[in-house]
Amino acid sequence: MANKAALFNYILRLADTNLVLGHRLSEWSGHAPYLEEDIALTNIALDLIGQANSLLIYAAKVEGKGRTEDDLAYMRNEREYYNSLLSEQPNGDFAQTIVRQFLSDNFDVLLYESLSKSTDETLAALAAKGLKEATYHLRHSRAWVERLGDGTEESHNRTQNALNQLWRFTADMFAMNPDDKDLVKAGIATDLEKMQPTWLKNVEQIFVKANLTIPANAWQQSGSREAKHSELLGFLLAEMQHLHRTYPEAKW
């Protein structure tokens, strides 16, 4: 059986990324370019938060210390969160939100395809459900990347600028530690290092169609595997966790 602590941390990282990205997208509610897109972004946010909820329930069960999914979501500080650096980046303008989502969606589709074959039956089932949602998310963000990148001069420039700003956080999504590799050997986790070339090929194909160029600067920022984040995450969690921490016993 896989190391319980390693499995707990692995599930937690999956959940944290979805929770943080879902919260970021929820910030668009009532502010998207038009009503239909407002609903689309809100629905994607709900999907991601729903996936995070299911993963946190499983993480709490694996940990076995009596904590609930709410405890894990609301009672940890930023140095206890393991979400990808990309997911915590601010929404910026609509182009930046779409590029961030497109990079994440491509990753999620490949990840869930792999995890749906995991030897951990619960993780496999959660991944199979997540794959259906991630496929829709990717279809949505891919269409927007093509539309914005190959659109007006203004939309193209904004989308290229977004790609230039966000590309530095992409390698962090594929970082692995020794515990991850042990889980891969056990058939539980996905080998992200092997997955990365396929992800890169997929995003490059769409960027070519959208007349967008991946930045030549190879410098990448990482640290999420060690719970090292920018100051952005602290502000996000302060907002997200405020109500629960203020009224921890509140019942709806």
Please tell me the CATH architecture by its name: Up-down Bundle
Radius of gyration: 18 Å
**Beta strand %:** under 5%
Total DSSP helices: 9
Shape: globular
What is the name of the CATH superfamily? Ferritin, core subunit, four-helix bundle
Task: Please give the oligomerization state of what you see.
Answer: single chain
Task: Give the number of DSSP strands.
Answer: 0
Structural class determined from secondary elements: mainly alpha
Low-confidence stretches: none
The biggest sheet amounts to: none
Number of domains: 1
Fraction in helix: 55-70%
Secondary-structure element string:
HHHHHHHHH
The CATH C-level name is Mainly Alpha
First and last CA, distance: 39 Å
Short description:
By secondary structure, the chain is mainly alpha-helical. The chain has helices at 4-26, 35-63, 69-74, 94-115, 121-149, 153-166, 178-185, 192-209, 231-246.
